[in-house]
Each structure stands twice: as C-alpha cells, then as structure tokens.
Amino acid sequence: MAYVVTEKCIRSKYQDCVEVCPTGCFYEGENMLVINPDECISCGSCADECTAEAIIEDTEAGAEQWVEFNRKYAALWPKITSQGEVPEDADEWRDVEDKLQFFSEAPGKGDA
Ligand code: F3S
Questions:
Q1: Which of 17, 62, 79, 81 is the most exposed, fewest CB within 10 Å of its CB?
Q2: From the CA of 34, how far away is ligand 1's center (Å)?
Q3: Does residue 54 have its Cβ closer than 6 Å to ligand 1?
Q4: Cα-flanking dihedrals φ and ψ of residue 10, to 5°?
Q5: Which atom of ligand 1 is nearest to the CA of 49?
C-alpha cells in the first residue's frame, strides 16, 4: 500500500507534505509533487497535512491512474525533502476542478 498525489496538487503545491514524510519519498515537478509509491511506507502523515486534500491511498477508487502517474514522474524528477517556494496564487487554485490540463512535465528544482 502507498499514498499518491493527485491533480489537486497542481498549481497549489503547498509542500507541507514533504516536511512530515519520514522516508523522503517526494519528487518535485514544476507545478506539483509526486510520491514514489515504492518508497512510501503508508504512514499517511502527508495526507493529513495537505490542505488541498491532494493525497490519497492507492486503494481508493480511481487511484490506479495516479499510482502510475506518480511512479512515472518520481523516476524523472528530483527529490525534495524540505518545503521550497509556495506559489503566490496557491490558494486560488486549491478548489479548481480538473487541473490536469494545467500539469507541467518540467522538473522542479528539488533540494537545490
Ligand atoms: Fe501538493 Fe498538498 Fe503537498 S498541495 S505539494 S500534496 S501539501
């Protein structure tokens, strides 16, 4: 079992999740984070911390596509273990639906 990040993270990217992750299994894209599901120990701390409710368990309905999505980008993006810059308009994006259209494949800076 693992937790994964969904499209609700896109353009909100609060990064409170990375601060509580005991295994450092978050990876940073330009406008969202993902979890490496193979490194996640399913503690659930990150899901509790995310005010965008962007993190779900891989057993939830509809989670399958996000597991593959998280695995794919975790292999491409740099690791992030501490909170970086939060987008100024993060709150404005929090409740926007269907954010996948705004997804960027570009990597973030990671623990630069
Ligand atoms: Fe994204 Fe929530 Fe983390 S918005 S960066 S999953 S705290």
A1: 62
A2: 9
A3: yes
A4: -55, 130
A5: 7
What pLDDT shows up at residue 62? 92
The candidate with the shortest Cα–Cα distance to 4, out of 54, 52, 50, 49, is 54
What gap in Å lies between CA 111 and CA 55, rounded to an integer?
A: 21
Residue 69 CB partners (closer than 8 Å, separation 6+): 4, 34
Mean pLDDT, range 73-82, rounded to an integer:
98
69 alpha carbon – ligand 1 mean position (Å): 15
Q: What is the mean pLDDT of residues 48-54?
A: 98
Separation between Cα atoms, residue 19 and residue 56, nearest integer Å: 17
Q: What is the pLDDT of residues 98-110, one digit of tens each?
A: 999 999 999 999 9
* pLDDT value of residue 112: 76
